[in-house]
Amino acid sequence: MFKLKGRIVELNNGILLPKNMEGMPLLKRIVSLIFIFTLSVGINNDLLIASAKPTLAFSNVDLDKLQTAADFKLFTPSCSDQSYKLEIKEPYPFAPSLSVSKVRLHFFDESGQTYLFGIEEHKAGGYKINRVITNIDVRNRTSTTRTIVEDFKFNEHGEKMNINGIEGRFEPWANHIPGGYLRWVQNDTFIEMDSGELTKEEMIALAKSRR
Known about the structure:
This protein has 211 residues and is of the alpha+beta class. The protein is 22% helix and 35% strand. It has helices spanning 26-52, 60-69, 200-208, and strands at 8-10, 16-18, 85-90, 102-108, 115-123, 128-137, 142-151, 159-163, 166-172, 180-186, 189-195. The strands form three sheets. It has a seven-stranded antiparallel sheet, covered by helices on one side. It has a two-stranded antiparallel sheet with strand order 1-2. A hairpin with a 2-residue loop joins strand 10 (180-186) and strand 11. The protein is globular.
């Protein structure tokens, strides 16, 4: 119900009408009711649009809990100059009582619709990765797949970058779109940032703001 100034009364046909509209000519009543209805519908539509937006924002409490659960030092970019919607992509679901060995965060624009960049972090040393190897026998038309567990190794491919005195590597996308991969090791934490929206310079500025 959209409340106007004055007491609300209910007519016989069930329409709610302000006190100051009683005794008003029929045409004026109709025009006033159309205005009220239009305004009310506009407000309701705004509420529906707002509720339809994805809820991606997580509070600082979630990040604090994630930092406590991680078995490595977790770094997050400083967002003081820009507002982001943050999604904890991995681990999912996040259980604060369980130890976390790998974290992936997705950052969206304020609308929550456009993916801006992602960050993946885990220990730089002593971290195990699964590598899948598939062998294809063309003659017999068969294939076998096996998984090998091996120690993580930093990928040194790409252009050297200086991130607060730390040597990092940047690899652009092959199709010349903005961004690429930026990776480095900070306090024994491996950090890799990817983006198809930010430029190389913007990614480096974000990397330097991590705390």
